[in-house]
Design brief:
The chain is α+β, with helices and mostly antiparallel strands and about 280 residues long. It has helices spanning about 5-25, 35-60, 75-105, 115-160, 215-220, 270-285, and strands spanning about 170-175, 180-185, 185-195, 195-205, 205-210, 230-235, 235-240, 245-250, 250-255, 265.
């Protein structure tokens, strides 16, 4: 069992225990009339709560198609947990109603299965679920924001350790007669603009932009032999040798370009590629 699975089990166990503790304190559903049997009923409800968590995980993974992943960022984790809460609250309220009907109704007549009982149970579980959800949301946000900041710190450290690119001249051409000749180390970034690409590079110490009629895919294929040039977004190719810093702003990752002080977005799907390129270029592979 890996660390993430252990953490998931621990979270579900603590959440269920919190709800059962609250039920033990306030004794709804006629539990105060059961006396010593209350402990057995609380144990039964605890098992139902854990079972409901397991079923909800299966629903999220295989039906909603949201597997548990710690690599997709804090927003994905929070979004998944909100869906988990919604599904699990409905399910656990139903299971408790069935338990009240089949196990507890012989002693407490009001536990018979009915719509009003389900609404009552749902209201109680929803309130408790909301309370424990606030706790986990705060804890997850702090934890994963700290992890992201540490990851960015490490990436920026590796960025500074990247090898200096060798001076090498390159000519980029479009589908017509236009072309751009530049030192590969002088390339800043390439941006998709409709049917054209804008090549932003240094020329005589100044930032210059040239338009070529071509596609980003063709540019990516042309530059595939240069590991420091990588796709960071569907609309941008960037020279990591010209990136001053990687920053996180409002939940998104951006690359600050050294010479022009522009910031380029990094899409989540391209983040792994950027990390691999930094590691590869830094090690001189």
């Amino acid at each position: 069992m890996n660390k993430s699975h252990k953490e998931t089990i621990s979270i579900r166990f603590i959440s269920t225990a919190f709800i059962i503790l609250a039920i033990a304190i306030f004794k709804p559903f006629g539990l105060d009339a059961e006396r010593w049997q209350t402990f057995l009923h609380l144990l039964g409800l605890f098992v139902l709560g854990l079972f409901s968590c397991f079923i909800t995980e299966v629903i999220l993974r295989h039906i909603v198609r949201m597997p548990r992943s710690y690599d997709r960022g804090i927003n994905y984790i929070i979004s998944r947990n909100l869906r988990f809460q919604f599904i699990n609250t409905l399910l656990v309220a139903l299971l408790i109603c069935l338990y009240r009907h089949f196990v507890m109704s012989s002693l407490v007549e009001s536990n018979r299965l009915s719509l009003s009982n389900y609404i009552e149970t749902l209201a109680i579980i929803a309130f408790l679920s909301f309370a424990i959800g606030l706790y986990w949301r705060f804890k997850f946000r702090n934890k994963y924001l700290a992890m992201e900041l540490e990851e960015l710190r490490q990436l920026n450290k590796e960025l500074k350790e990247m090898q200096e690119p060798r001076l090498q001249e390159l000519t980029l051409t479009g589908s017509t007669n236009e072309s751009v000749t530049l030192q590969i180390s002088h390339l800043l970034y390439i941006e998709a603009v409709g049917n054209y690409v804008k090549v932003n590079h240094l020329h005589d110490g100044q930032v210059r932009s040239d338009m070529l009629r071509t596609t980003m895919k063709q540019m990516e294929e042309t530059l595939q032999d240069y590991p420091m040039i990588v796709r960071c977004h569907r609309a941008f190719l960037v020279n990591l040798g010209q990136v001053e810093q990687i920053v996180s702003h409002s939940g998104s990752t951006q690359l600050l370009i050294r010479q022009c002080h522009e910031s380029l977005p990094v899409s989540r799907s391209n983040m792994a590629q950027v990390k691999a390129a930094i590691a590869s270029t830094r090690c001189g592979k």
